[in-house]
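Human:
Class, as today's exercise, you are to examine the entry below, and be ready to discuss the fold:
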Amino acid sequence: MSYKDLFDVRGKTALVTGARKGIGFAIASALAEHGANLIVVSSQQTDNDELSKIAAKSGVTYTTFACDFRSRQDTLALIEKIKDMKIDILINNAGLANRAEALDHNDDLWDQTIEIDLTAPFILSREIGKGMAQRGYGKIIFIASMWTFLGGKNVISYTAAKTALAGLTRGLSNELLPMGVTVNAIAPGFIETDITQAVRNDAERTTWITGRIPKGRWGQPSDLAGAALFLSAPASDYVSGVVLAVDGGFLAN
């Protein structure tokens, strides 16, 4: 392979969940601009004018589906709709962080978070992974979190789910890599998205966090695009079972 082809995803098809905005939007945009056809899944809307324009400008196809990952039925219905599609790249990005102190974190909050952040990504990876394994090629990427490594505060179900994603990444990698499918995760640091809005509303905590980030700023969704492209492209064919932190140096400090 020529080195110039290391990041070539032209002709590949990528399914991205939670691509309506934030990290999912940034990753989907980067993949489209580098030639990947897009299948995007969102619970709130099935189309995104800006993303469709990026896809059209890049000359790639753009297909949308609606799915509420809180519902196992919805997730299985989505699988049925896409079962005949050739998907080369799966970005498990859709997520939810229910905030409550652990002692007040009721069963409904727990079940909802685990379903969206852990169970749905596993089901998607299992079912889409079957086609990848049969074809001998595929890229599965989970969006983990800083709380994959740390305890967090007032997000106990989110922390549990994101920690479990690290084990899911390693376990699936062990089984799927011999079949030509790499499985990795990206752990974003403190990124300016809807999920972190509550933290950013706390001026004291925001100041402390920013002061601990060696890069000196919170991340933007676009900061995740390069890592996602790397893990989606031939450049990472010998990389699997890895949880890659993209955190401005936070974990190292």
About this structure: The beta strands are 13-17, 37-42, 62-66, 89-92, 138-143, 181-188, 243-246. Residues 148 and 163 are 4 Å apart (CA to CA).
